[in-house]
Amino acid sequence: MINPRFRSLMELLSEVELVYQFMVFATPETAVGLFPDVGASYFLSRLPGFFGEYLGLTGARLDSAEMLACCLATHFVPSWLGTINKCFSHGTVEEILSSLEIEAAKKNEDWISVAIKSLKKASPIN
């Protein structure tokens, strides 16, 4: 298993940096008087304007949208993509609908109920 901080550094040094919906970027070591470590000075110095200095000195936290906006990430992967792949991998609309209904019972996520309503409204099975 790779240390999450080291993994984050590896991702930031690659050509494609993925962020997920609930991912947060932070340099918490600055709160205790230390400088950003694990190679953070390398990628912070390459951010637009003086945004790297801001992050490195303040320890500000960024959500995934802010990470995209300041070039710390190149692509956004929604947290619900796995559920979509799981539910829509079935062979029939009935199985897809059933799978979505099972997920809706487990998770309180608006997009699932919207998908169910859309399928029921537009599907030839109804």
From TrEMBL:
EC top class, as a word: hydrolase
Organismal lineage: Eukaryota, Viridiplantae, Streptophyta, Embryophyta, Tracheophyta
Alphabetized Pfam families for the sequence: ECH_2
MF GO annotations: 3-hydroxyisobutyryl-CoA hydrolase activity
Keyword DNA-binding (UniProt): no
Similarity comment: Belongs to the enoyl-CoA hydratase/isomerase family.
Annotated catalysed reactions: 3-hydroxy-2-methylpropanoyl-CoA + H2O = 3-hydroxy-2-methylpropanoate + CoA + H(+)
Name listed for the protein in its UniProt record: 3-hydroxyisobutyryl-CoA hydrolase
Enoyl-CoA hydratase/isomerase domain segment(s): 21-79, 83-125
Gene Ontology annotations of biological process type: L-valine catabolic process
Function: Hydrolyzes 3-hydroxyisobutyryl-CoA (HIBYL-CoA), a saline catabolite. Has high activity toward isobutyryl-CoA. Could be an isobutyryl-CoA dehydrogenase that functions in valine catabolism.
Domain of life, per lineage: Eukaryota
InterPro entries per record: ClpP/crotonase-like_dom_sf, ECH_dom, HIBYL-CoA-H
